[in-house]
Amino acid sequence: MELSPRYNPTEVEEKWYQRWKEAGYFQPSMDGTRPTFCIVMPPPNVTGVLHLGHALNSTWQDILVRFHRMRQDNTLWLPGTDHAGIHTQMKVDELLRNRGQDRLSMGRQAFVQEVWQWKEQYGGHILAQMAKLGASVDWSRLRFTLDEGLSRAVTEVFVRLYEEGLLYRGNYITNWCVSCHTALSDIEVEHEEETGQLTEIAYELTSGVGEIVVATTRPETMLGDTAVAVHPDDPRYQGLVGQWVELPLLGRRIPIIADAYVDPTFGTGAVKVTPAHDPNDFEMGQRHHLDAIKVIGEDGRMTADAGVYAGLTREEARVRVLQDLQAAGRVRGMREIIHAVGHCEKCDTVIEPLLSLQWFVKMRPLAEPAIEAVRSNAVQFAPARFEKIYMNWLENIHDWCISRQIWWGHRIPAYYCDAGHVTVAREPVSQCAQCGRAVVQDEDVLDTWFSSALWPFSTLGWPDMTDDLKTFYPTSVLSTGYDIIFFWVARMIMQGIHFTGKAPFATVLLHGLVRDAEGRKMSKSLGNGVDPLEVIDRYGADALRIALVLGSAPGNDYRWSWERFEAGSHFANKVYNALRFVLMNRDDHKWDPGEINAARSHPVDQWIDERLNDTIVVMTRALEEFEFGQAARAIYDFFWDDYCDWYIEMAKVRLKSAERHEALETLTRVADRALKLLHPFMPFVTEELYHALRPDGGSIMVAPWPEPESGVVRRDAVIAVEQAQSLIRAGRNLRAEVGLAPGQAGSFVALADTPEVLARWQAVHTEAMALLRAQSLQLCLKEDAAPMTKAIASVVVGGTVYLKLEGLVDLKRERDRLEKAKADAEKERNRLASRLHDENFIRRAPHEVVTKTEENLKEVEARIRRLDERQALLQ
RNA sequence: GGGCGGAUAGCUCAGCGGUAGAGCACCUGCCUUACAAGCAGGGGGUCACAGGUUCGAACCCUGUUUCGCCCA
Asked: Quick one: which residue's CA is nearest to B68's C1'?
């Protein structure tokens, strides 16, 4: 068999994805007798480029999906993309700008067409990148949030919510981005701590007998003040409530009101009330029937109501208003303050809270069942701690502003006539449902998350009761980052329950954020991200995948570094070379997969089978519990340590003997199963090697997941090999001790304390010799042997191993070595003995622990005896 | 202000009631025909601190320090 000594992932990975796809392996079996397993992929933005966060999430999902597919479950992983309204519109805007065009002059229809064109051209990019990762998604079910079917679902949901009275349209304070020129929902605002100026401004009482001082970080909004508020119980202002003040600069008369919202301990205890530009002030305005005067417009400039300041930007206005207040002698104090300022998530512009006409969803009625679903464990979070975050948000939920003043998205199916009637309809209408007059459709589109919230069922065909919907809904797992629990997870659960009666998934699996080596979030401006495709080019998708999973735990952030990816590629190479070894030896041995349970007697074979069994158990459990790191670690350790470093090395002995056939069979059988265990993590290299191993065995993708053998007792063999390992390690240690070069064979003697130990050693005698590179390894009972003087010794479990020396033993050095070994052993003995002397321990600790401690004590005492004997001999 | 998470070997992180682990880095020796992307051997940790629970705590509880995140 001709195989390069180095694994070349590029060559291998390219061919398999296409073959899998063509063979239809990505599609569900639709076998109704098997359990179903379904994941709908969190749809990346069509504008998106794959980053490590996607890679991590996709790897997790692919591991789960491949695991379940191998278990022969009816498995579906449904892919798709999200139209990402604001983001995509901004991208195309920029594109147009570069061409010297602009959206407003070309008009809505032409613009939307432009976006579709752009989507057709670049929208598949991120999906192609996922294919490179090996994502085994069912491409025949690919969805896009603006697809006809999904759009129908969006309209249906809008209409039904409206009919149920859960939608309303009104003038409320919204988070307005003056740069994106649209309203945003609360959670699309990012609060950042900033240093601001807290200015204290004096408002003169109209009675002429004093002033009231208010504090603000936004002096320009005073132009829109319609009241001053104090706490009703604040003794400082008792007499003033009900009086009027004159608003500086504008001269408007505004009342002093009392409202419990005011915090009497903050600032002067009196606050200016600007209902049109502050959410809390808006609510106070409602309670006290105040006017809301909008002094800042949608473009971020002062309106006509701002008097002489009209036309200035809000930033300019702040400076001017402050100057004028100072000139008028109204400023009573200024100091720096750290406060949270809202910024647009998309463009980082400071958010303007603004009174505007928008559509809202009443969230309270939707939230209740969603809270209950998690409380009753119908939906479970992994890790569970994220439940709290979810609950906390839902319990304090605010209504959701869903209209967006952009063009790219689902247009709101609401129509208005001149008489002010609203018609909400599933199909476009031209006449008002109430008065028959001509109507115009709402210009706005819906928040992208409004459609994403329907994703788990809209992608499966809802509102039609399709076969897919019946089969795969509710889905099994939703895997995503903890940063979008509010944006997406909670809303999906709410909508899912409301419209289908069932929570959309059983488990919410949350991964951490991927960070750079310094622990910073990845960002374009820092340039500290890495393109997963570059990693794949350098090390292969398998290396990337295993590196993302090894040593990571659900919900914990992950720091990437080239070293981790490199380590992943080393493992891929190791796997490849182990199989290369098997394949090179197998030329003369045709392995029949049917022989899997052939009888085998050699202890080394029994031992590796037992280790493999343990690995299967651990991995299966870990995968069921979404502990990918633990599962990966189990197969990594098994493959590298047990299989490569011990089993293959020991098997080499028999490959040169008459037992060649038996060894080859175990080598092959174990490799076959180990590859299967590894396949969900490293699909490409395992498929490649699996085919080489069993050319007519079909794809590993659909091979059955290994089951542990039950009822096979191999305890003796396991102990024998473990004791041999202990002997070999000790012997190697002795070699290193005297600087015996690996090329030089050593002469070893091992003296067993009991016939049982001797028998075990004898069972693996030739293997031990080979691994020790010994020219001889005499095994006998201690009582049958003469004292070993020309040798150095090391005590092991059950006996002592000696390396014979030609010349004189360096007595001093050997005594020191033994002394140190004895000191360690005595420390250990004292520790164990004191535990066993503790009555409480004997009485309260589990029986097995006590027994084990007793055994360990016996063993360490034997070790000390051997060391004593050795020391006596060297006196 | 409320909540959550991290603090374990030089670095990055697993482990989360029964004698401290991995990868990388470091030291020593090896091209032992599967693999130098490797092999063998080795050094290195009062598991942030202080209490408590327990026969037994890195692991559970309480508090403290510190870094980070989320919400208000």
From this structure: A519
The domain boundary, picked from A485, A513, A545, lies at: A545
Could you report the per-residue pLDDT of A825-841, keeping only the tens digit for each?
Answer: 888 888 888 888 888 88
Which nucleotides on chain B have any atom < 7 A from a protein Cβ?
3-6, 12-16, 18-19, 21-24, 28-32, 34-42, 54-56, 70-72
Asked, for residue A127, whether it belongs to a domain, the answer is yes
Residues A309 and A194 in one domain: yes
Q: Give the count of alpha carbons within 13 A of A218, CB side only.
A: 22
Do residues A856 and A751 share a domain?
no
Let me know whether A816 and A790 are in one domain. no
In angstroms, the CA A486 to CA A580 distance is 49
pLDDT (tens digit per residue) in A81-92: 998 888 888 888
Closest nucleotide to A627, Cα to C1': B14
Domain containing A857 equals 812-873
Which one-letter amino acid corresponds to residue A182? T
Residue A733 tokens, joined = 């240690």
Please calculate the CA angle A666-A670-A675 and round it to the nearest 5 degrees: 150
Residue A294 marked as a ligand binder: no
What is the side-by-side strand order in the sheet with A414-417?
A422-424, A414-417, A439-441
- pTM for the structure as a whole: 0.89
Residue A631 domain flag: no
Are both A765 and A857 inside the same structural domain?
A: no
DSSP A402-469: -EESSSSSPBP-EEEETT--EEE-SS--SB-TTT--BEEE-S-EE-HHHHHTTHHHHTTTTTS--HHH
Distance CA A227, CA A254 (A): 5
Distance, CA of A717 to C1' of B56, in Å: 32
Nucleotide B29, nearest residue via CA and C1': A741
Q: Which helix (H) or strand (E) holds A372?
A: helix A364-375
A244-246 vs A211-216, strand pairing mode:
unpaired
Q: Answer for A2: CB within 7 Å of strand B.
A: no
Give kind and range of the element (H or E) at residue A78: strand A74-78
A635 touches strand B (CB under 7 A): no
Question: Whole-number Å distance, CA A744 to C1' B26?
Answer: 27
Does a structural domain hold residue A651?
no
CB of A863 nearer than 7 A to strand B: no
What does the pLDDT look like over A636-655, one tens digit per residue?
Answer: 999 999 999 999 999 998 88
How many domains, in total, are found in chain A? 4
CA distance A398 to A725: 64
